[in-house]
Fold this sequence. Notes:
The protein is 43% helix and 16% strand.
Amino acid sequence: MELKTRGSVESLDLLENPGFYTSTKNRKELILILVTGAGKTGKTITQALTAHGVDVRAIVQKDDQIADMKQAGAQEVFVSDLMDESTLNKAFFGSSAIYHVCPRMHPQEEEIGQLMIQLAEKNHLKHFVYQSVLHPQIEELPHHWKKMKVEAQLFRMNMPFTILQPAAYMQNVLDELDKTLKTGEYRIPYPRSSKISMIDLNDLAEVVVKVFSETGHENAIYELSSSETLSALDVATAAAAVTGKLILAGAYDRKKWEKDSRSAGLSDYAVDASLKLFQYYEENHFIGNPNQLTWLLGREPTTFEQFFRQVYKNN
Length: 315
């Protein structure tokens, strides 16, 4: 499989890297990676892959997401419901590999994953990379447990797979950045002292490129988290150090959070799953191990302060 050049620029590192192609006698094939998901994950993964000369075909669920994915570098964009087998099959046809990330807290994650696996096998894709979550084994967290069930389905496939289990994104802190900077309060709907592992989404994207571009990652499961475990107090302290502003960690009343989230259009399933997650955070820390991410990156993972400093500088 030979990489297609993008414009007049060739990505020599990948053209010379055997992980991005399979050698078949008298045959060369274009690599085309299918990326499901049009949120911040899908866009960041697409940007990382296309920056390395890889052609990306994206699946989105709404017409107004097409422009964002095109801007991120997707060569082709298909609009489809994630359970529409007929339309999805057109996107799978001719693709070489898939990066599957289901929309966050989707009630049909298990069924969607099963369909993606079926179509990948039907269209003879060569590699299935699935974005799961840190600690999918926790049964009382429904959105984690559904990912665990998708992982189990991957073991029955007749193709190489890689499972990535990232911690919560550092980027999630930015959802209410303007309000945090304006009010001087970083609010969360669980105890401010609860310790949680995090990952910079850009570190995850770097790992994705490596998984697709190198051999040796087939049939592997990677737990991905940075070296830090952070409480809301730690996040507020780091943000204050970077901005020079007084920022404190505050409590977001859970009933108020639920009311606000429902008003904003969050589904019943997502609200329920989130509340169970907050309760888990109240009763337990949520901590991963950084060794696999450090090994895959070949460096120390990005710290929260490094991440936040870069974001604040760019804005």
